[in-house]
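Task: sequence design from structure.
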């Protein structure tokens, strides 16, 4: 089967936005020389599936020169977790335990790789969650030394040209795509939610630990009002707003934008204040001398000021979109339910 056909099967299953292609040349002294096909001025974004099709002849030439080809799937809204270096027993245990890879690859005779696709949660912890997923799954089933959620694997349809795999006739085994099915693994998604919840708890604990003793000594009504849904909403909006920023973001402005968004989706002033009070400190690398109590009050108050009224009225058209972002059921919109001062 041609490399182009194998890539089409693989890409339809893994469902990544782009694919980085790496060619590795094995040198006589045992060293390796890597070449990333799309890298320019130190930057690599990967290829679209259509661009891979156009570059297939170049990749075939690289193989004829004795080089090894690798794909790295890349997506902004999904993790593509590689489980590497599995024998048959570990692969069967992975499947038996309920994990559902989108692609199963035989990288060399008796050695297997799996690619699991799982949606990102849209929180500030996405990168850490992906890295932890990779670490946990490889420690249990694959290569315990593999680190990082973004990792290359051998390209199906091309040869594995490691010297130890060379046959007596001088040929090399082909990397085989054993199974390709577009699907997202629900068991891995559940694990990612557990890991993310752990990071959220740590963020809250860090924010609480940074508060002055005077704040701990008195009842904090805003903190009590910030239920888990408001905190989760803040974190989802924070991640979404940062994705849309160009250059270095003004985090105070980001918090104001989030406060207005949360007003539009129906959170009250106390819940917004409490969410900012808990989450905003953890988003800063330094304390910057903030009085977080005052900061949270001012920012939440702004969302319900006259200026906040105007912004909320203008942004009401995004209510359904933002409620979906928060993972909430979208109710029939009631024009007066936000109490806008029009």
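Answer:
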């Amino acid at each position: 089967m041609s490399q182009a056909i194998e890539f089409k099967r693989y890409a339809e299953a893994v469902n990544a936005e782009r694919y980085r292609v790496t060619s590795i040349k094995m040198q006589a002294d045992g060293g390796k020389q890597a070449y990333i096909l799309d890298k320019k001025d130190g930057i690599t974004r990967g290829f679209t599936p259509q661009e891979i099709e156009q570059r297939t002849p170049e990749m075939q030439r690289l193989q004829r020169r004795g080089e090894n080809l690798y794909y790295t799937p890349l997506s902004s809204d999904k993790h593509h977790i590689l489980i590497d270096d599995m024998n048959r027993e570990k692969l069967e245990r992975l499947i038996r335990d309920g994990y559902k890879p989108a692609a199963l690859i035989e990288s060399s005779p008796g050695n297997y790789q799996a690619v699991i696709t799982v949606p990102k949660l849209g929180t500030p912890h996405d990168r850490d969650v992906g890295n932890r997923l990779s670490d946990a799954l490889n420690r249990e089933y694959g290569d315990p030394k593999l680190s990082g959620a973004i990792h290359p694997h051998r390209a199906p349809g091309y040869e594995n040209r490691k010297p130890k795999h060379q046959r007596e006739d001088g040929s090399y085994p082909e990397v085989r795509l054993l199974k390709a099915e577009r699907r997202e693994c629900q068991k891995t998604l559940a694990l990612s939610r557990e890991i993310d919840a752990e990071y959220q708890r740590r963020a809250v604990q860090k924010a609480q630990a940074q508060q002055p003793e005077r704040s701990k000594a008195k009842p904090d009504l805003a903190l009590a009002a910030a239920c888990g849904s408001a905190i989760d909403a803040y974190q989802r909006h924070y991640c979404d707003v940062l994705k849309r920023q160009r250059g270095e973001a003004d985090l105070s402005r980001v918090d104001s934008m989030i406060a207005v968004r949360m007003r539009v989706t129906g959170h009250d002033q106390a819940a917004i204040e409490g969410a900012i009070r808990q989450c905003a400190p953890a988003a800063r690398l330094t304390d910057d001398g903030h009085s977080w109590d005052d900061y949270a009050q001012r920012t939440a108050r702004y969302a319900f000021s006259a200026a906040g009224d105007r912004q909320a009225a203008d942004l009401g058209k995004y209510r359904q979109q933002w409620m979906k972002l928060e993972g909430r059921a979208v109710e029939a919109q009631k024009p007066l339910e936000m109490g806008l001062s029009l």
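The CA atoms of residues 258 and 337 lie 19 Å apart.
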